[in-house]
Structure formats: C-alpha cells, structure tokens
Specification:
This protein has 3 helices and 12 strands, in the order βββαββββββββαβα. The chain is an alpha+beta fold. Strands 1-2-3-4-5-6-7-8-9-10-11-12 form a 12-stranded antiparallel beta barrel. About 11% of the residues have low confidence. Pfam families: Scramblase.
C-alpha cells in the first residue's frame, strides 16, 4: 500500500488547461510532496474533443482517469460512465473495487463495494463543493472540500483544487472511496464548465 492510501490529509489539484486538453490531476500530501498523478485514459474522437470546447455538456461523456504513483506504477482507475450517476473504482487490472451511485441531483452518493454491499455514503452541500464521506452507521470517515479560486477561474478554466481529510481509523474499502472522492466528484460534477 502506498502513502496515498495512508495519509490523513491530501490536496488534489487539477492544473489549468485548455478545454480540449486531457483531464489531469496531482495528489499531494500536506508537505506538498506528490504522492500520485492522474491522467485521462483512452483517446477522444474529434467530435468529443469539439464538445469540450463549447461549455455546458462535456460532463455527461464517459471518462476514465488512471492514478499512478510518481514513478508511473498504476494504483487505481476512476471510471465515470456517461451521465452523472455512476462512477466505478477499478484496480489497475480492471477489477471492480466499488461504485459511487448518485441519488438526489448528484448531491448524495451511495458507496458500494465490489459485491454491491453498502460501505457508506457521500453527501454534498447545495453547491456540490463540500462533501462528507460517512460509514454505514453515519459516522464521518472523511471530508472533501473544493476551494473556490474566483469566478473567472471557475467558469473559464479547468483549474480546481480540493482538500481531502481522512479519519485515522477508516478501513478499506471506505478509505479508497475517500482518497478517490475528489477526482470522482470533479469528473461527475465540475468538469463541464457551464457558462450558459
């Protein structure tokens, strides 16, 4: 297990990029050390690339992001299906680790393991910027906070920054759901910059 899955605090940053560029993230610890990087997998068709240039609908496309350690060893795949209701966590070999399934307008997600058993929930605020991850009993396992970088940055670029905190006693697979939560929520809810 890497430090990515044991750190109590993470920063997840999506660098500023043009709308047609591939999705990328960096995951850092509290000292700013890069623990993982993530990049979109697969190639986009010309039509899919053009859709990302025009705001409003790019977030409904299917998209997968591969997390690797800084040396390039694969750790985890965050696989968002078309739409905004299902995100699957996969091992590097493609095996399903669990799912985020959206309920209530993308503000509440049920977290289920590979055998489709409930392992917790993820609840967001009205703006879908701050999330609390809970275990099956409702106890807080972690939090995900999206930092606001200003109106122009929010509307016109893909630059996003998240702060993730994880409780010390959170066990697997819930710990992985918290670690991957910022990227999962960004793909589902914030990748499309809706100016209209």
């Amino acid at each position: 297990m890497t430090e990515l899955f044991t750190a109590p605090f993470l920063r997840v940053e999506q660098p500023r990029r043009g709308p047609a560029a591939r999705t990328r993230y960096r995951v850092l610890d509290d000292a700013g050390t890069v623990l993982a990087v993530a990049a979109e997998t697969g190639e986009r068709s010309r039509a899919e690339t053009l859709k990302t240039v025009f705001p409003g609908k790019s977030g409904i496309d299917a998209r997968a992001v591969l997390l690797t350690d800084p040396d390039g060893s694969p750790l985890l795949v965050v696989d968002k299906a078309a739409g905004r209701t299902l995100i699957t966590l996969r091992a590097p070999d493609g095996a399903v680790l669990g799912t985020y399934t959206a309920h209530h307008a993308g503000r509440k997600f049920a977290l289920r393991d590979a055998e489709d058993r409930p392992v917790g929930g993820l609840d967001g605020d009205l703006a879908r910027r701050n999330f609390t991850v809970t275990d099956p009993s409702g106890a807080t396992a972690g939090t995900i906070r999206k930092r606001f970088a200003g109106v122009a940055t929010h509307l016109l670029t893909t630059a996003d920054k998240y702060v993730v905190t994880i409780g010390a006693d959170v066990a697997e697979p819930l710990r992985t759901f918290v670690v991957a939560g910022a990227i999962a929520m960004d793909l589902a809810l914030h990748e499309a910059k809706e100016v209209t």
